[in-house]
Amino acid sequence: MTQQSATCDARLAHLVYRGVMTGVLWTVSIDGYEHLAKVESGATPLNLKALARSAGRNGGAFAIFLGTFGGVSCAAESLRGHRDWKNTFLGGFSAGLLLTHKANPAAFSSVRASFMTATICGAFASVFGEFSNPE
């Protein structure tokens, strides 16, 4: 295993881990807050199983998003032999395509909306990456 692939594998694993933790924290802070507001108003009983399922779904979704970003960025870095903003853009673009995926496979987002969302994610990721990792 080369040094570049070991670093890439570690970055990918770290991003997937961060995705799982972000999903769990999202559930605790956002979904949990909404659920507790409904419990407090008497609209619904406390349902910890539903919150646990939500944590699993959110953790999985964030892990897939960040894993796609990291995997594509690392693959581009490995194929191109450079570590620059273009790899980060490709990772962000690929992850951005996931944002337009629908739960119903028969319902497709427009190609234009998918392309624009992916481009914005890629641009944001590459700009953020350049400013946060000056080399």
Automatic annotation (TrEMBL):
Q: What is the lineage of its organism?
A: Eukaryota, Sar, Stramenopiles, Oomycota, Saprolegniomycetes
The alphabetized list of GO BP terms reads:
protein insertion into mitochondrial inner membrane
Q: How does it assemble?
A: Component of the TIM22 complex.
Which cellular components does GO assign to this protein? TIM22 mitochondrial import inner membrane insertion complex
Task: Establish whether keyword Mitochondrion is in the entry.
Answer: yes
* Name of this protein: Mitochondrial import inner membrane translocase subunit TIM22
- Source species: Achlya hypogyna
Q: Where in the cell is it found?
A: Membrane; Mitochondrion inner membrane
Q: State the similarity comment.
A: Belongs to the Tim17/Tim22/Tim23 family.
